[in-house]
User: Which sequence fits this backbone?
């Protein structure tokens, strides 16, 4: 992967964007030797977002299943009960 400094990006932005967008080149932007950012083609970003969304879904799935099992086991609270409880608490104030 190509590395460019922030100064090079500032001075050659148009050329660098073309290299990334049309040449499908990935670049790391550095400042004083420290990696700050990455420039990637939109297709790469879209793919990365899809992968991250899928991973988040996999992480969340067990919790969703657990919560659904709790609802089946314990039931739910009706909206009418919630409103009645809210009215009671407001009258006490």
Assistant:
């Amino acid at each position: 992967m190509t590395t460019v400094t922030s100064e090079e990006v500032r001075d050659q932005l148009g050329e660098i964007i073309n290299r990334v967008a049309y040449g499908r080149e990935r670049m790391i932007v550095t400042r004083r030797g420290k990696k700050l950012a990455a420039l990637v083609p939109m297709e790469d970003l879209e793919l990365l977002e899809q992968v991250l969304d899928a991973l988040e879904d996999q992480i969340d799935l067990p919790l969703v299943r657990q919560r659904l099992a709790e609802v089946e086991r314990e039931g739910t609270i009706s909206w009418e009960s919630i409103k009645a409880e809210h009215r009671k608490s407001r009258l006490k104030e």
DSSP finds three helices and three strands in the chain. The CA atoms of residues 84 and 90 lie 10 Å apart.
